[in-house]
Amino acid sequence: MENQRQAYREEARELLAELENALLELEETPDDSELIGRVFRAMHTIKGSGAMFGFDDIAAFTHEIETIFDRVRGGEIAVSKEMVNLSLSARDQIQAMLDASEGENTADASNGEAIISAFRSLIVDAGLPEPDQPGGIPEGVTGPLNAPPETGKAAHATYRIRFRPEADIFASGTNPILLLNELRELGDSTVVAQTDAIPELADLAPEACHVYWDIILTSSQGIDAIKDVFIFVEDDCELRIDVVDDGRGPGSDADYKRLGEILVERGDLSTGDLVAVLREQKPIGELLVEKEILDGGVVTAALAEQHHVRQVRDRRREKAAGSSIRVAADKLDALVNLVGELVTVQARLSQKAAQDNECDLLAIAEEVERLTAELRDNTMSIRMLPIGTTFSTFKRLVRDLSRDLDKNVILTTAGEETELDKTVIEQLNDPLVHIIRNSIDHGIEVPAAREASGKPVQGTVHLSAVHSGGDVLIQISDDGAGLDPQAIRKKAVARELITPDADLTENEIFQLIFAPGFSTAEAVTSVSGRGVGMDVVKRSIEALRGSIDISSRKGAGTTITLRLPLTLAIIDGLLVKIADDAYVFPLASVEECTEFSRHAADKARERKMMNFRGNIISYLSLREIFAVEGEPPDNQQVVVAEINGEKIGFAVDHVIGQHQTVIKTLSRVYQDVQGISGATILGDGTVALILDIQRLAYAVETEEQIAA
């Protein structure tokens, strides 16, 4: 049972995310019936599944909110900002109840009662009758106040109900419509009024009931709850309740029953009459041929097409039934670790085969290498998730924060389909929260200031993601006041981060905001101003082997660009050697490799530049950077890589070739080493360091500026 409860928690969290998005969209377009339907369906599913798996407090609380939106669907209540605010609070309360079920915290029942009370006030304000409130709310349960009996609960079974009241039922003061409404509260229902017994107007008795009803009801409350609805009129009506689907299995007949079967089961048609009618019918193909409208061959071809397509759709339906499964994250991580170990073993096998030079062993090693590469790619693709899910969570943040700061801000997004490793996405949430909070608090002006400067009153924060080689670029931009380089410089001098005569570019000044404790805010608020956040952002992004860049124009806004690797587990690398030490370049950043003579390499090293296909590009010698002793080979090889759109040549002793690289994180002792992002184990058991070429180039440039 606990497995099913955990599955419900996961499904409920997905539904809560969907509910939050739908509510935020509904706030913008309150008359959108499709959005109202999305909200209702999400709450209905949370309630129904919660009751099934023992989350009675969630089911009871959600039932109250669902009732309100059922009235919204019916046009009785209009969507208002207050209703959206309450609904979002209700969503947070359900989230708290879910967390409480796992022992993470305790849900505040009084908060749930306050939300329900506020919703009831909305009903009263709309001039509608308030739901009955017998007995109050039991301790620890936050509604509903008029819940149906708990006895007789079962799976979501489907019932066929025939309710035919006596003609004089009105004389006893009974209103059948109220009974039908009470029946609707038990679950999803379809009600059909049968009017065949209504007489001609001249013979109509106004005080008599001439209508009866057929109801199809899907409910988890059980047949006893249905009988309780009619308990006071059971002697004044004809009542028939049949179970047509017990809800205990997925079912095998997608088309359910044929019309004739249903009519016979209901007792509205005899088997003999059905057979007689069917005998009179002829297939449409036979009728077309008889009337010489079509040739028999054409009809045969059409029948063949029909049969074929039905078979294909049946197979597709069977495949779709098991097309996706939910896998625990720790199992997926374990799979990736095993694949990483397999990659390392495969490298050992390939190296051994090359050393022994045996044809059979070489063939086996090549086949294992191919299969390992496919397994690695498939495993990594399973870990890739669209970043849109993360983006959507910030809509609520922007909405609530702009309200708290008395600003008018919206969030727009682009590139939601861009995929990233799940580990990267999980660690990306906090940095993005800090950046967005700063954009709204420091960047976006208050409406009056925006209007005075000729800007739209409503500010915009834009989130976008796009692939760039082996990386993903995530940009957070706003149309606010922008950064003031002079104010940043003045603050940095006051905090002795730089000297008053320091010669810094505008980009270097912007990078000062990542210094610990740095803030240009004049006053400390509940949102920012303490200088905590942006330094954490930088450390978090660098821990992901990424980089962060800022561009801004005073009065026109700021754009922060995060460059992140696609994955933190296994990458394609280019293995090189300097003396006896091995290093790995991320292959996605490598443009090509070329070769230099000893004399040409010496000249390039002196000038820090080289001629590459007619263009002058920067040149760095890894032997010199890492202070490797000994003489370089007569012919040095150069790996040309692209960093932020610029090409840089890295001189190495030897290029070994492509290498599947399993990334191993370095010890905390080495976490501040510039230019190294991790390590990997080679086939012979030696360790190769993985180069972070962007930070390496930046470190060299910084040292040269300091030396100058």
How would you describe the overall organization of this protein?
- The strands form five sheets. The chain has a five-stranded mixed sheet, with helices on one face. A five-stranded mixed sheet has the order 19-12-13-21-20. Strands 14-17-18-16-15 form a five-stranded mixed sheet.
- It folds into six domains: 2-125, HPT domain (Four Helix Bundle (Hemerythrin (Met), subunit A)); 157-248, 2-Layer Sandwich (Alpha-Beta Plaits), CATH 3.30.70; 284-319; 329-384; 387-565, Heat Shock Protein 90 (2-Layer Sandwich); 570-707, Roll (SH3 type barrels).
- The chain is built from 22 helices and 21 strands.
- With 708 residues, it is an alpha+beta fold.
- It is an enzyme of class 2 (transferase).
- Residues 1-101 form the HPt domain.
In brief:
With 708 residues, the protein is an alpha+beta fold. 45% of the residues lie in helices and 21% in strands.
Secondary structure: elements and pairs:
Layout: H1 2-28, H2 33-52, H3 56-73, H4 81-101, H5 109-125, E1 157-165, H6 176-184, E2 187-194, E3 212-219, H7 223-229, E4 237-245, H8 259-266, H9 271-280, H10 284-290, H11 296-321, H12 329-356, H13 359-383, E5 384-386, H14 388-404, E6 409-414, E7 419-421, H15 422-443, H16 447-452, E8 459-468, E9 471-478, H17 485-494, H18 506-510, H19 534-543, E10 547-553, E11 557-565, E12 570-578, E13 581-586, E14 590-597, H20 598-607, E15 609-612, E16 615-621, H21 622-625, E17 635-643, E18 646-652, E19 654-662, E20 676-681, E21 687-691, H22 693-707
Parallel strand pairs: 6-8, 13-21, 16-18
Antiparallel strand pairs: 1-3, 1-4, 2-3, 5-7, 8-9, 9-11, 10-11, 12-13, 12-19, 14-17, 15-16, 17-18, 20-21
Helix pairs in contact: 1-2, 1-4, 1-14, 2-3, 3-4, 3-5, 4-5, 10-11, 12-13, 14-15, 15-19
